[in-house]
Amino acid sequence: MIGRIAGRLDYRGPDHVLIDVGGVGYVVSVSERTLAALPGAGEAVALYTDLLVREDLLQLFGFLSLQEKEWHRLLMSVQGIGAKASMAILGTLGPEGVSRALTIGDWAAIKAAPGVGPKIAQRVVNELKDKAHTVMAMGDLSGGGAGPDLVDAAPSAHPAPQPAASSPSVGGAQSQAEALSALSNLGYGPSEAAQAVAEAAQSEADTAGMIRAALKLLAPK
């Protein structure tokens, strides 16, 4: 299994790139979003990859982060979602958008991807909504697109504050911590995330339910 490629970007196509690794060129299929984030020809580049193996085909797909790669693998586990549809969803929404859509059950957002109909979009939400918080907790462990070095995955020097211990809650401390981490990885500030999780914990006990409730509280009115 080829899990990551780092080398020099030789060529940019409409839906793929050619990466030179020690004199060997690898053709890697990428989404429009990933393609837009990559540097120009001749620059250093690093991508996490997933290898699709068929009787008549070996195809590499490239991703800027491990989180995006994991969403690709989960999306492809849904009946009716192949590699093309998965890349279309990720190219339209990005990993953060997929996380939000599945967490709050927004199948219309999934349907916005080219080639994805309403029935398939609803199936994606129904089958993957309970797995969203696990992938969201991975955060943005990205290769950064440019440069062969992996991102420093060390914990932030400024972790999000935990909800006050004195607040009465249904949800346990572990679930609240996981929900806070997921919201932080989606870009919410520590204060607003902590407040939303603390309120959501009054009625939700598990991580997935807590995240869904918190996102509804944080949604624009």
TrEMBL record:
Composition bias of kind Low complexity appears in: 153-173
Compartment(s): Cytoplasm
Sequence segments annotated as region (Domain I): 1-64
**Keyword Metal-binding applies:** no
Task: Name the GO terms of the biological process aspect.
Answer: DNA recombination; DNA repair
Q: Which SUPFAM superfamilies match?
A: DNA helicase RuvA subunit, C-terminal domain, Nucleic acid-binding proteins, RuvA domain 2-like
Pfam family, any one = HHH_5
Supply the alphabetized keyword list.
ATP-binding, Cytoplasm, DNA damage, DNA recombination, DNA repair, DNA-binding, Helicase, Hydrolase, Nucleotide-binding
What's a single GO MF annotation on this record? Answer: four-way junction DNA binding
UniProt xrefs under InterPro entries: DNA_helicase_Holl-junc_RuvA_I, Hlx-hairpin-Hlx_DNA-bd_motif, NA-bd_OB-fold, RuvA, RuvA_2-like, RuvA_C, RuvA_C_sf
Cellular component (GO) terms are: cytoplasm; Holliday junction helicase complex; Holliday junction resolvase complex
- Region listing for Disordered, in residue ranges: 147-173
Quick one: where's region Domain III?
Answer: 173-221
Function according to Swiss-Prot or TrEMBL = The RuvA-RuvB-RuvC complex processes Holliday junction (HJ) DNA during genetic recombination and DNA repair, while the RuvA-RuvB complex plays an important role in the rescue of blocked DNA replication forks via replication fork reversal (RFR). RuvA specifically binds to HJ cruciform DNA, conferring on it an open structure. The RuvB hexamer acts as an ATP-dependent pump, pulling dsDNA into and through the RuvAB complex. HJ branch migration allows RuvC to scan DNA until it finds its consensus sequence, where it cleaves and resolves the cruciform DNA.
Domain remarks in the entry? Has three domains with a flexible linker between the domains II and III and assumes an 'L' shape. Domain III is highly mobile and contacts RuvB.
The record's comment on protein family reads: Belongs to the RuvA family.
Note the NCBIfam families from the entry: ruvA
Task: Name the HAMAP family for this protein.
Answer: DNA_HJ_migration_RuvA
Q: How does it assemble?
A: Homotetramer. Forms an RuvA(8)-RuvB(12)-Holliday junction (HJ) complex. HJ DNA is sandwiched between 2 RuvA tetramers; dsDNA enters through RuvA and exits via RuvB. An RuvB hexamer assembles on each DNA strand where it exits the tetramer. Each RuvB hexamer is contacted by two RuvA subunits (via domain III) on 2 adjacent RuvB subunits; this complex drives branch migration. In the full resolvosome a probable DNA-RuvA(4)-RuvB(12)-RuvC(2) complex forms which resolves the HJ.
Q: What is this protein called?
A: Holliday junction branch migration complex subunit RuvA
